[in-house]
Write a structure and sequence with these properties.
The protein is an alpha/beta fold. The protein has an 8-stranded mixed sheet with strand order 3-2-1-4-5-6-7-8, with helices on both faces. The chain has a 6-stranded parallel sheet with strand order 11-10-9-12-13-14. The radius of gyration is 23 Å and the shape is globular. Bound molecules: ligand SAJ. The site of ligand SAJ has 20 residues, from helix 8.
């Protein structure tokens, strides 16, 4: 039996996938409310294909509980935040989960950590727990998750994976487990290499986005079209620049690269500057709003609306979202009043939030497209008589402003 610990964005789809591919799975989470929701047959977030997978897993016999199970295989997928001061990974949730598991794990059990951690964390923070608890019989494995919110179910099956293990044989055994549903290549390596590869993948993307954001700023000064420039550059066979945007959110690309800055402050210079560039984008957008209002002779901030609250398109996840960062920044200047709307966020989470697209559009003259949800792409006509600041280059009519 496999006990999946942590039933969030990664743990839940992983548990469901394993359950629908022949494994006996029990999902454990200390959040009673979350477990209760799953036990009444409801998923806890929206994700393409997740509800169908959930129903199939229920039929296959998956169980959800707050109790840690007595078994020989555990998968840990709990959050790994970073300490805002030191920028280092905070492995407290991983360590807490491991301690609970050690109370019940069978002799010689394998604990697979999927949570993202910086290189060396398992050696520095997790192994000492095994030593202290006299559980050196336990096998530690790191199998960093790689799936992208919005396409998780597909990517669980089709992405290549990395398995880091001390012992090649154990690594191969875990590979077999993942191969039950993963149709792509699974590389077995050591733990520290697996830790590093995961952080590096997200750092590569963060640095590339920062480069695009920096180009957007340079092009703004020169009054040039950054999108046209990136499009042409990307026609070169060895150039692949990502897209500028209003900031970088989510719990991965806006977090993981800081682990390297925190651990190697004297070395990770490009990464540090890139993260600062990305973190500065919500303020850059706020400044653009101010400039455009001035140009248009607008004075009433309550007639300006932010479209989108989530960290990216077509998901309901708001973690580290650029819109929330922008609103926070505005409040720091003791200003409020911007209207906000997101079709994926039904609850009231910020001030002046609308819950219907038409109601939102009727209450503003100036729309800032913060997130390119399909909904707004399908309703472009409704923006025709508005002032528009399009942070994603999706609005093709004349007079639209860009970052
Ligand atoms: N973004 C841009 N410009 C771009 C692409 C993205 O500004 O060209 C912004 C998005 O709007 C968003 C943020 O970056 O705010 C991050 O979005 P994302 O779609 O790039 O990535 P995540 O954070 O949803 O998922 C990433 C993925 N990592 C990589 O692509 C290397 C995913 O595969 C990982 O599993 C995930 O992080 C994770 O959990 O680590």
């Amino acid at each position: 039996m496999i006990n999946v610990i942590g039933l969030g964005y990664i743990g839940l789809p992983t548990a469901l996938m394993m359950s629908t591919h022949g494994a006996k799975v029990v999902g454990t989470d200390y959040n009673k409310e979350l477990v209760a929701t799953l036990n009444v047959g409801k998923t806890t977030f929206k994700e393409s294909g997740l509800d169908e997978l959930f129903q199939d897993a229920l039929k296959a016999g998956i169980k959800f509980t707050t109790e840690y199970q007595v078994t020989d295989t555990y998968i840990i997928s709990v959050p790994t935040p970073y300490d805002k001061f030191s920028k280092r990974v905070d492995a407290c949730y991983v360590v807490a989960a491991i301690k609970e598991v050690l109370k019940v794990a069978l002799k010689g059990a394998t604990i697979v950590i999927e949570s993202t951690v910086s290189p060396g964390t398992i050696e520095k923070s997790v192994r000492p727990v095994l030593v202290a608890e006299k559980r050196e019989d336990i096998n530690l494995v790191h199998a960093p998750e790689r799936i992208i919110p919005g396409n998780m179910v597909y990517e669980l099956i089709h992405n290549n994976r990395t398995i880091g293990a001390d012992d090649k044989e154990i690594g191969e055994k875990v590979k077999e487990l993942y191969a039950s549903f993963c149709q792509s290549e699974i590389v077995v390596t050591d733990i520290k290499t697996a830790e590093m590869t995961k952080v590096v993948e997200n750092t590569f993307r963060a640095v590339n986005i920062a480069f695009a954001n920096e180009l957007a700023k340079i092009c703004r000064q020169e009054n040039m079209d950054v999108y046209e420039i990136i499009k042409i550059c990307n026609m070169h066979p060895r150039v692949n620049i990502l897209q500028p945007g209003p900031g970088v959110g989510g719990h991965c690309i806006s977090v993981d690269p800081w682990f390297l800055v925190g651990d190697y402050p004297a070395l990770a210079k490009v990464i540090d500057e890139s993260m600062k560039t990305n973190d500065g984008m919500p303020d850059f957008v706020l400044n653009r709003v101010y400039e455009i209002m001035k140009e248009k002779g607008m004075t009433d901030i309550t007639r300006v609306g932010l479209y989108g609250l989530t960290y990216k398109e077509n998901v309901d996840d708001m973690r580290e979202s650029p819109t929330l960062q922008l609103l926070e920044s505005q409040e720091r200047h003791l200003a409020t009043g911007l209207k906000v709307y997101d079709p994926f966020i039904e609850k009231d989470v910020v001030k002046n939030q609308c819950h219907d697209l038409d109601e939102f559009l009727n209450s503003v003259d100036f729309v800032v497209i913060m997130v390119k949800h399909n909904e707004i792409k399908e309703n472009m006509d409704k923006l025709k008589n508005k002032v528009v600041l399009d942070c994603h280059n999706i609005c093709k009519f004349d007079g639209v402003y860009h970052i």
